[in-house]
Amino acid sequence: MIHKAKKSMGQNFLKSKEALFKMCEAGDVNNNDIVVEIGPGKGVLTEKLLEKAKNVIAIEKDRDLIDILKDKFANEIKEGKLILLNEDILEFNPKTYNLEPETYKIIANIPYNITGSIIRRFLSEVNRPNTMTLLVQKEVAERIVARDNKESILSLSIKAYGEPKYIMKVHKRFFSPSPKVDSAIISINNISNKVFKDKKEEESFFRLIKAGFAHKRKVLRKNLEDLNIKEVGLPYIDEIFNKLEIDTKVRAEDVPFKKWLKIRESFDKNA
């Protein structure tokens, strides 16, 4: 059955054997693992995952591709090794399949247009995965790992839950159809919620970084002055910056993740 990629669904099918190998290697897939695959497409990655994992749950939104996958993996589905779901990944509930927190892995070539939504969805999920290995737009991958040592709301949001790592570039020619930009494989390991002791700290951190990046041309201390925290003013912020050895002229993108945690702690303590 011939399937033409649907632009509306962001379909670009991977055809690099090296990239497939690297994704499985980065995900450290073994025969004890339950792997959730997002958008299996024609099943090239699914095939590799089934060779290594205990079980694979593949979630495909495209009904036409579901029919292709059902034919291709009829035996694996019958054996219960592969669970094939025709649904939207953003509506997938891990609890429905008894996926406890940090007991499964996500490995996927995901559509560019929902990359941020997918990452936020699963990192903030109560029943979050232990690791995520994703093929994403190269520019996004570089931003996630702060390859130029410049942080962003995206990179800080991911570091709050796990450890992102850049694996390799995948040239656009290794996709069908070929997208306009190159891709890259990233992994997010040791995913947990241990950075925050409760929901209040978690919300406070995200409110802080959102305020910090609100106006790119302003230095961080000026952006934080606009934050709605009791008695916040420049003298108060300067005192915190001096204590934490942070330059008062620094911009948000130049402050490393661990310093952001210290700022949040200081603000919360004095709020």
From TrEMBL:
All copies of domain Ribosomal RNA adenine methylase transferase N-terminal, residue ranges: 19-192
Class in the EC hierarchy, top level: transferase
Keywords, alphabetical: Cytoplasm, Methyltransferase, RNA-binding, rRNA processing, S-adenosyl-L-methionine, Transferase
Protein family membership: Belongs to the class I-like SAM-binding methyltransferase superfamily. rRNA adenine N(6)-methyltransferase family. RsmA subfamily.
Recorded superkingdom: Bacteria
Subcellular localization: Cytoplasm
Gene3D superfamilies (UniProt xref): Ribosomal RNA adenine dimethylase-like, domain 2, Vaccinia Virus protein VP39
Stated role: Specifically dimethylates two adjacent adenosines (A1518 and A1519) in the loop of a conserved hairpin near the 3'-end of 16S rRNA in the 30S particle. May play a critical role in biogenesis of 30S subunits.
Catalysed reactions, as listed in the record: adenosine(1518)/adenosine(1519) in 16S rRNA + 4 S-adenosyl-L-methionine = N(6)-dimethyladenosine(1518)/N(6)-dimethyladenosine(1519) in 16S rRNA + 4 S-adenosyl-L-homocysteine + 4 H(+)
GO cellular component annotations of the record: cytosol
Keyword Hydrolase included in the entry's annotation: no
InterPro entries per the UniProt record, alphabetical: KsgA/Erm, rRNA_Ade_diMease-like_C, rRNA_Ade_Mease_Trfase_CS, rRNA_Ade_methylase_Trfase_N, rRNA_adenine_dimethylase, SAM-dependent_MTases_sf
Species of the source: Candidatus Nomurabacteria bacterium GW2011_GWE1_35_16
Annotated S-adenosyl-L-methionine binding sites: 12, 14, 39, 60, 88, 109
Name of the protein described by the UniProt record: Ribosomal RNA small subunit methyltransferase A
A Pfam family matched in the record: RrnaAD
NCBIfam families: ksgA
EC number: 2.1.1.182
Single GO term (MF): 16S rRNA (adenine(1518)-N(6)/adenine(1519)-N(6))-dimethyltransferase activity
Major location (coarse): cytoplasm
